Amino acid sequence: MESSLSCHLHDDDGVISLGGLTGQMIRIGLALTSTRDLDELLELVLLEARKLTGADAGSVYLVDGESLRFETSQNQSLFDRLGEETVRAMFKRSMLPLDSRSIAGHVALSRQILNIYDVYDIPSAAPYKFNPDWDFANAYRTQSMLAIPMLDQSGVVVGVVQLINAQARGETVPFDYRFKHVVSAFASQAAVAIVNARLTQDLHAAWLDSLFRLGLAAEYRDKETSNHIKRVSEYSVLLARCAGVCGEELEHLRWAAAMHDCGKLGISDAILHKPGALTPDERSTMEYHTLVGAQILQGGGNPLMKASQSVALSHHEKWDGSGYPRQLSGEDIPLFGRIVALADAFDAMCSRRVYKPAHPMGEVIKRIESDRGKHFDPVLVDILLEHLDEVDRIRMAYLDNDADFEKFRNYSLLKINAVL
Amino acid sequence: MESSLSCHLHDDDGVISLGGLTGQMIRIGLALTSTRDLDELLELVLLEARKLTGADAGSVYLVDGESLRFETSQNQSLFDRLGEETVRAMFKRSMLPLDSRSIAGHVALSRQILNIYDVYDIPSAAPYKFNPDWDFANAYRTQSMLAIPMLDQSGVVVGVVQLINAQARGETVPFDYRFKHVVSAFASQAAVAIVNARLTQDLHAAWLDSLFRLGLAAEYRDKETSNHIKRVSEYSVLLARCAGVCGEELEHLRWAAAMHDCGKLGISDAILHKPGALTPDERSTMEYHTLVGAQILQGGGNPLMKASQSVALSHHEKWDGSGYPRQLSGEDIPLFGRIVALADAFDAMCSRRVYKPAHPMGEVIKRIESDRGKHFDPVLVDILLEHLDEVDRIRMAYLDNDADFEKFRNYSLLKINAVL
């Protein structure tokens, strides 16, 4: 363990190098603050804490209101014995009450590092107890433990890092208390990084939430339910993934699909809700909803908004060039537009709407097949038909019920208490 | 200068303390990564860089595409001589081309620290030159300079910190090159903090942008222009500031005001655009737009969305209790609802709409005054009437022109090229 904490500054050609510890702490700080995904960050915090103290295993807990949430564990001995994937599958996210009965809870409340030589020798007078269930279940012997509170810049406890079984010369030893300042400094860096990652995550969620509301608002016009948007989103992501789209682009499509019809906000009821066929003039006005949508979504400057604009504009183009507004054909139609065109038409056919019941699935499939290479991209139709099981899982997860439609029928059912 | 960079680790009761430098670097790193406002962060970067190197003055530049943007300067001698506020007013944000002719540009491109003993002795063979204009204008003598590239974790140049006139024993000396690793480590911490702050800023802007689009979409229903939303937002912020609202809450109101009418998305054209008076049934349906709006905006979980929901629900309540949907009166109506009620009604009166011209300002003021304590909060009416100059500035900044209305009249004017 000593070797991992060598602390020295040395002179070299008159230039003062950053000594082992300073350099190491700065490198760790940079790595932590550059990692913006919270799960990835917590793994890194635990890994670096284990390296810094030579721990065989460890866990991270985050404070969540009046509870401590167990977030992740690493256990080198078990990883070596059973394989990392198997061991990770054994960990379950769980909640502990934020009180002094658990070691992590005690540390979070006392805000002090706790250094235990052997968890099976904790005096019975201590408020906290060690829970040996995990050890018994997995033939592991937890011995030494160092539990560190992570305090952010303003002194708020963000969570607890619990390190297990310090290793030295191949055996388990107590944690070396001489490094408590180093470990505290590390815990502060981790806390600030966690606070930042959470802020980013919250802001990102708020952004996506507001985009969904924009999609939802549009569906109000069309008397569609919010389940319709969710289904079209999920079908689109499924089709895209099978077509080879991956990573961030899948997420862009998810939200772009939710907003595809927002241009309907600009179309009058007389046209939008006309029971019979539209006159050529009315049809041409209706078709402008693609351009109105593109106008509402234009100029966002980020890839998600660009994808959304493209989908709003192109989701009524048809593979054979007979769609609108630009009569594009084949692969000239943006892929996301082709995907949402199929997902939206499929969902419209197999879902009930205010004015019509759902079509039977057999009939829907026949119609989709007959439009293969006419309305729809043939490759996407094949993907859809090959994944009907997954499609059905999505359909069942977001099934409409009567109450979803009631709100459109009669606003007097909308009670003030329901929105307060 | 040496004293600020003392580098040592010492043993104390067997506990290893973090030495001066390690502790200092970690403290600086934490302070930088905890500062999320970009302007505040840049001031802190410059201040800490000056402390670390004993510099009298300095500037920060950020890379912006093919340019370097001058962001901020500090100059202790001038602050002491003329007062900080005066000196800060003399700095102007400006752009430099990102090339080797300037010192900052050269450092950004070469990615190397540049240590100049005297900027008036730069050899003529050097690609960069010192621009003495500032010195002449302000009776300052720039002498030693240390220009440091800020590289993020992936080695991208984020910007340049330019430090001026190292001080030792009361006089200007060259910067001590022995600390180049320390200064580089600091610059990396600053770069990562800047990248994070920008990410947060961009994400925040994307969120607000999407909220504005939601307001915009709603105004499409009502054939209102986007200028109407901007005016109502600005009037609301003006009223709130004069009523003592400050800080983040003002920003919440700005966006809440933009979305106040989003419930109109759920009201049919027949009612929304009926030329004559509404029947009691139609009126009651129309009034549900406050509840529909609250429903679209509910459950956001952050203070901005909560404020938005409250405004959507309460902006048609009246001071005397004769409004809707809850017939609240006086201060039982949330302040933001009272503010938007006045801002919205005022703007409706003094702006043209698709179906009516603007009313003359004299008449508008008379109507607002006669509704003081009836429709409107009397305190807010007084504030509005006392600030008609500012109100007029807002009105002029967001004046509607004919083209803003054309898009509602005839969608065939909407050209595809305009939205691509």
What attributes characterize this protein structure?
homodimer; 420 residues; alpha+beta; Beta-Lactamase; Hypothetical protein af1432; 2 domains; seven-stranded antiparallel β-sheet; two-stranded antiparallel ribbon; 52% helix; elongated; disordered N terminus
Using the coordinates shown, work out and report the CATH topology of the largest domain in chain A. Hypothetical protein af1432
Averaged pLDDT of chain A? 87
**The CATH homologous superfamily of the largest domain in chain A:** Hypothetical protein af1432
Point out poorly predicted stretches of chain A: 1-12
Order of helices and strands of chain A: EEHHEEHHEHEHEEEHHHHHHHHHHHHH
Alpha-beta content class of chain A: alpha+beta
Q: What is the subunit organization of this protein?
A: homodimer
Query: What gross morphology of chain A would you assign?
Result: elongated
Number of helical elements of chain A: 19
Total domain units of chain A: 2
Q: How would you sum up the major sheet of chain A?
A: 7 strands, antiparallel
Commentary on this structure:
Two copies of one chain form a homodimer. With 420 residues, chain A is of the alpha+beta class. Chain A folds into two domains: 2-198, Beta-Lactamase; 222-419, Hypothetical protein af1432. The first copy, chain A, is 52% helix and 12% strand. Chain A has 19 helices and nine strands. The first copy, chain A, has helices spanning 20-34, 38-53, 76-82, 84-90, 103-110, 133-138, 180-221, 226-242, 248-258, 269-272, 280-287, 289-296, 303-314, 335-350, 361-370, 378-386, 388-397, 402-409, 416-419; strands at 11-12, 15-16, 55-64, 67-75, 94-97, 114-116, 145-151, 157-168, 171-173. In chain A, strands 3, 4, 5, 6, 7, 8 and 9 form a seven-stranded antiparallel sheet that branches. Chain A has a two-stranded antiparallel sheet with strand order 1-2. Chain A starts with 10 loop residues before the first strand and ends with a helix. In chain A, 42% of the residues are buried. Chains A and B meet through β2, α1, α7, α12 and α13 of A and β2, α1, α7, α12 and α13 of B.
